Amino acid sequence: MYFYGNFSTMTRSEENYLKAIFHLGGLEHKAVSTNAIADRMETKPSSVTDMAKKLSEKGLVAYTKYKGVSLSKKGSQTALSVIRKHRLWETFLVDKLDFMWDEVHEIAEQLEHIQSEKLIDRLDAFLGFPKQDPHGDPIPSKKGEIQKEYKKLLADVPVATEGICVGVKNSSAPFLRYMDKNSMALGDTIEVLEKEEFDGSLQIKIRNKQIRISNDIATNLFIRPNE
Amino acid sequence: MYFYGNFSTMTRSEENYLKAIFHLGGLEHKAVSTNAIADRMETKPSSVTDMAKKLSEKGLVAYTKYKGVSLSKKGSQTALSVIRKHRLWETFLVDKLDFMWDEVHEIAEQLEHIQSEKLIDRLDAFLGFPKQDPHGDPIPSKKGEIQKEYKKLLADVPVATEGICVGVKNSSAPFLRYMDKNSMALGDTIEVLEKEEFDGSLQIKIRNKQIRISNDIATNLFIRPNE
DNA sequence: AATTAAAATTAGACACGTCTAAAAATATAT
DNA sequence: ATATATTTTTAGACGTGTCTAATTTTAATT
Ligand SMILES: [Mn+2]
Ligand SMILES: [Mn+2]
Ligand SMILES: [Mn+2]
Ligand SMILES: [Mn+2]
Description:
CATH superfamily of the largest domain in chain A: Winged helix-like DNA-binding domain superfamily/Winged helix DNA-binding domain
Number of strands of chain A: 8
Radius of gyration of chain A: 20 Å
CATH architecture of the largest domain in chain A: Orthogonal Bundle
Structural class of chain A: alpha+beta
Order of helices and strands of chain A: HHHEEHHHEEHEEEHE
Strand order of the largest sheet of chain A: 3-8-4-5-6-7
Oligomer: homodimer
Bound molecules: manganese (II) ion
Distance between the termini of chain A: 57 Å
CATH topology of the largest domain in chain A: Arc Repressor Mutant, subunit A
């Protein structure tokens, strides 16, 4: 088996690092600090430094000592491909296998590393070319285009704003289960009725019922205000 | 993170070794030689010895130096679980994602290592609890029961035998494509019309058409003779 | 500006899974 | 039974990815 020049098969670990760097650096590919990556990946800074060198070697990131890493074009394309796979698999698990939205992330963390272009294209078609995953996050296109939709944190909109709940910022299982418990779901209409200055808690109307939510909740819910 | 006594998460490599040992040792868990495993896994005998020790440590195989390894109950259960996953995923790829039966093995080699009991149960249900994979191989139950159905190699049945083609022994892509090319598929009715002693080739009727197949083909096709 | 604190890197180690080359055990042939 | 061939194991190495402890660089304080 001959491996030519830039035949690059990513290891699982490399893919995970790229994904973390992408999420931390945003769409503008800002430089990301060693510690930030270590935190997010629950690893040690020294491990991050090692990987930074390796990814830099491969042309996937720009790395300057003590200055952090930033994704190259190639690096961000790879990251987007992994994110695409992650979100398509999550969609599959929820739409086809009837998983709850709080159960799919861990499994998708594994499935996202399956290597087969054809598989993911077929899956995409099978799912009807979904644009968002179960948590409202956009699914990058095959080419790596990510459509960003207009949305704001519920905590950031003024009182009296009405809109549709379109996403969660925190998609950890406990938060998602909180939403289920309180009958809150993506697609629900939300209206901000009152905001408490002291603790940032909100009185909102959702599904025509009034409830009070803490600031902690409000900073993790995305809303698309009506018009 | 604490790992108690028999908390056993298999590595991908361990799973692959167990699977190879299972296939070589058959349902009776015969002892398997180091070289046989190395051949099948395209690795070196020294690597096999190393792994034999490790699997033995974990109670998955019985290993005595120079005598080969044989699966323990626990080892064969694990192997069967991996095989179950492999075959369910292959079925998914063919039935739901419209893959050809010669394309699925490589992808299933990856998917079989995804760890989630729930995922595989749901997938099983989603597929309608299939009993065979696309190559006619039985899918072990959740408990590891493998139904063996009555079938014989086409090369081994006497002239004039008629039956249904129920499986392929060799499920390599080239062989499967040979079948496609010649419009042969599982479920087809086959009748052995004539057998050439010299080279073992057969004249058969399949789908009401007569064709001649080499011994090489006949030793890779399973038939269930009509009663 | 000098000191202290925080962040990042390096040095050295280890587990895993693999390999090559050499040695030992077993099987085969004379 | 002895010699030869084959199989299997051991010894030692290497790449990957991780860690701890020590060092260096950069940032923040006084
Ligand atoms: Mn996720
Ligand atoms: Mn998601
Ligand atoms: Mn297969
Ligand atoms: Mn198969």
